[in-house]
UniProtKB/TrEMBL annotation:
Any one Gene Ontology cellular component term annotated for this protein: type II protein secretion system complex
Membrane-spanning residues: 21-39
Coiled-coil features, chain-numbered ranges: none
Keyword annotations: Membrane, Methylation, Transmembrane, Transmembrane helix
InterPro entries documented for this protein: Bac_GSPG_pilin, N_methyl_site, Pilin-like
Protein name: Prepilin-type N-terminal cleavage/methylation domain-containing protein
Pfam families in the cross-refs: N_methyl
Species per Swiss-Prot/TrEMBL record: Polyangium jinanense
Single biological process term from Gene Ontology: protein secretion by the type II secretion system
Length: 191
């Protein structure tokens, strides 16, 4: 055996060195961090798709209500309180079971249905223009201009969510006059 050579028994039992192990752990850490960013983006995107589905359901329910009564149903006079509850990081059942509560009863009369519990809170304001001007949504570009010439029934729906429980809401809005869903650029769907 020459100097610097290991006996054959050591060569067969050779494992990972500490530096090799540290490199593998670091690579796993980087991959986990990338996966977490992607997962959070996926979850928040799913929450935004909830808003699109529920706002579409509200639109259908409002149009059905208007077909019967010639006006839209507003459940609040402003964009609060939220239904089924003030937004936080928890899901809530759409029918919050508060029979006898005016807000609950209004939403039940509107007959909006969801596939399951929701993360966002919703508010719908309605009126008849020009005597009742369309509710303003300041974070939507050109909102006031687009809704200035309304003459007849209207509704505006707003959704708010707080997925990370920091009391900064993601806000979305739409109206009977446009099929667009505008997003608050301050927080949007990626708070």
């Amino acid at each position: 055996m020459q100097f610097g050579e290991r006996p054959r028994s050591y060569a067969k039992r050779r494992g990972f060195t500490l530096s090799e192990l540290m490199i593998v752990v670091a690579m796993i850490g980087v991959l986990a961090a990338i996966a977490m960013v992607g997962y959070r983006r996926y979850i928040r995107g799913a929450a935004a798709s909830e808003v699109k589905a529920v706002v579409s359901g509200i639109r259908v329910a409002e149009e059905a209500y208007r077909a019967e009564t010639f006006q839209y149903l507003g459940c609040t006079k402003s964009f609060t309180p939220w239904y089924p509850a003030t937004p936080n990081d928890k899901k809530r059942n759409w029918d919050n079971g508060q029979t006898g509560n005016a807000l609950h009863d209004c939403w039940m009369q509107l007959n909006v249905t969801t596939d399951g519990p929701v993360r966002f809170g919703y508010a719908v304001v309605a009126g008849i223009a020009p005597s009742e001007g369309v509710a303003n949504v300041p974070f939507c570009q050109n909102w006031a201009t687009a809704h200035a010439t309304v003459n007849g029934p209207w509704f505006v729906v707003q959704a708010a969510g707080d997925q990370d429980a920091d009391n900064e809401f993601s806000l979305f809005a739409s109206s009977s006059l446009t099929g667009e869903l505008c997003v608050d650029p301050k927080n949007g769907d990626d708070e």
